[in-house]
Amino acid sequence: MSPEEYVEEVLALVERIPPGRVMSYGAVADYLADRSGRSSARLVGSIMARYGGPVPWHRVVNNAGRVVPGHELEAMARLIGEATPMRNGRVDMKKAAWSPD
């Protein structure tokens, strides 16, 4: 899979995350690892930072449930608006984590 195809796969997967649910950067990378040969949460984060504007970027969080730095207020408002389960100011990953399988 070329780098361009990987970007498209990441964005397509993020578009599938339903409202009220999230995936971590690592979960996105792990889900695509077999097909892409890549498994880097940091790479997914870079792709989201560069190309993620048109997709529901707020539904991708770190593995502790923290939202994207620099956009915390907007991300939290969107997640709360979608009734995403929260706990102690973060996404409750046990309740909100989503997998396409």
UniProtKB/TrEMBL annotation:
Residues covered by the Methylated-DNA-[protein]-cysteine S-methyltransferase DNA binding domain: 8-70
Example of a GO biological process term: DNA repair
Entry-linked Gene3D superfamilies: Winged helix-like DNA-binding domain superfamily/Winged helix DNA-binding domain (1.10.10.10)
The entry's keywords: DNA damage
Keyword Disulfide bond: no
One term of GO molecular function: catalytic activity
Protein name per UniProt: Methylated-DNA-[protein]-cysteine S-methyltransferase DNA binding domain-containing protein
Originating species: Phytohabitans suffuscus
